[in-house]
Amino acid sequence: MSVAPQAVAESADSQSKEANPVETLSVYGSRMSTQKANAGVAVSTVSLEEIEKRQGSNVTDLIHHLPNVSVLGGGRDVAQSVTIRGLSSENGRVIQLVDGTRQNFSVGHRSSLFIDPELLRSVEVVRGPSSTLWGSGALGGVFAQNTKSASDFLSGSQTLGGYLKQGFHSNNNASRTSGAVFGRTETVDWLVQSYYNDSDDNQLGNGKTLSYSAEREKGGFAKLVFTPSLDHQWTFTARQGELDDMSPSNPSVKEPSGSYPLVYRETRDQSLSVAYDYSPASHWVDINSQLYFNNTEMKEHRVASQERDNNETQTIGFSITNTSNIKNIDLITGLDLYRDSYETKRDDSSAPGERPAGQDANAESIGAFGQINIPVFDQLRWQAGVRFDSYQGEDNRPTSLDSESRDHAWSPSTALTWNATEQLALTASYREAFRAPSLEEMYASGTHFTTHMGINQFVPNPDLKPEHSANKELAITYRFTPTSYVDNAYVDARLFRNDVDDFIDMNVDFMGGTTTRENVQDAKLEGIELSLHHQLGGFTNNLSYSQTEGKDKETGSYLDNIPAHKFVAETDYALATLPVSIGGRVSHYAEQTDTNDAKTYDGYTLWDVYASYSPNGEWDGVKFDLAIDNLTDEQYTRAWAQVASPGRDIKLNVRYQF
């Protein structure tokens, strides 16, 4: 069955939750809905209502509370990346999607999270390897950002409208302004939206200022959905964002230095896509297809040396999937094609020969996949899938000695679900995933750094093997029968082990004066996720506990960037007599002592509260959202970060919709 991008079937609670028992269903492509339907896959959804409550400046603000989802990079937004079960989007081990299109920009230590949360209607996070459906990069999982459409604002017989919104954040004196106009007819749904945000430096919990954390961003978004008949639908989207900041060349460090000089950074992110869905009255055919183009350019001006660098990534891709449902058997098949072009320019005018060399490379990938869901018995279902990917990378520089790299990978998966009772379900699953080496990892050359021992040079390695993972997972879900104490409730428990082979690491040889990326490590990541959801009347309560532990399988040493154990409790209450909702969240992060040196990270507890009010009568159309993050002004640093995160932040948004 095809579901239009703007169609939403929302559960009674709008909080983020595990997708298996109760969820907000948001379908932009059949692959995500297929993963949600599989009890062996952990999927969480953050709804539009929660996005508005959080008033985040970055997508990480919307999802860091989810089980085994964390943030790397410290207190500057321009340094942050998403980590799922110990594997990070910074190095391509987590796939980022916007409306189903891959976002493949990657430059060391810089964030690739460019979309403003104001454009989003939901965020969906898949935890655990997912290459069978998504291809290279899904070792840790997938996080999908889905944009708004006119139907997210219009209701009933409304056909035309707009809104203006103004927000203020006390911590960094941020001003966040946005607006949109939208409309719909019987066949057309359209939206034009824009935003402008300006902020000063972040203030920490100890009263100090995090220098060089201010930023300015602006952008726009347009979407047109054309539905000429019940069988056909076209979706056209265009998005552009601009982000300017001044920070160290590695924005995750505390201060600029000789190794990480101060840079003025301009980031320009553009995307165009055309999607076509065909859903005739047939159990065999439900086609989703998409053609897209992304271009991300990051210019950096080194303030002291006056050197100017440029990083640019272009991606053009096409995907098509078909979903069939025949006699209670679900079958999804599909094809993915994309081509990345990566070009960098390095200015070494102040110190000739002492900078990394510019790059000019491209990579191409083609993948075909199939997945089937079969009822074995009344209470037993079996899911199995497989994907084949073939990819190649090419260094286009005339100085390249070994310019081409080719490889392929298979990604099988299987899951068996036993519905022991109407309330209890048990699932055992096995999923494999892979990550192809990035163009930067294979072809980096030139000077890495200079010391008193001399110059250390990058050595290209186009023979890098892909990283592979194999995830074993057990899941138990119990749904409570509705009573006078429970309208909707479940408990979900997961135990997983993910073995990742041929980790690509940077091998720095100080004596030999070389730096090479090599397949040097086989790792295991294992952990648990416990979630409890409860809803009664206007009350919604969520509890979760998650932990991940990672070690080198050969040496037994700890892996870097493994998040601390986390406990999150949240409650929300919607008043029956007033258009008001209030809520709060407490998040406790344990001390992280699983490191290979004396450096450890203290535990901390964060308290957040929020409230929303939509008055009626003369104030109809106005909505107030108030949130206070880090209510106690806790001074804290996330595990593995060098830079502390912001202190108390009082956030107020006022929106008028007409």
From TrEMBL:
Pfam family, any one: Plug
Principal location class: membrane
Location within or outside the cell: Cell outer membrane
Keywords recorded for this protein, A-Z: Cell outer membrane, Membrane, Signal, TonB box, Transmembrane, Transmembrane beta strand, Transport
GO molecular function, one term: siderophore uptake transmembrane transporter activity
Membrane topology classification: Multi-pass membrane protein
Region (Disordered) location: 1-21
Record-annotated TonB-dependent receptor-like beta-barrel domain positions: 260-631
UniProt GO BP: siderophore transmembrane transport
Positions of the TonB-dependent receptor plug domain: 37-142
PROSITE patterns found in the cross-reference section: TONB_DEPENDENT_REC_2, TONB_DEPENDENT_REC_3
A cellular-component GO term for this protein: cell outer membrane
Motif TonB C-terminal box, residue numbers: 641-658
Family, as annotated: Belongs to the TonB-dependent receptor family.
Protein name: TonB-dependent hemoglobin/transferrin/lactoferrin family receptor
Organism: Salinivibrio kushneri
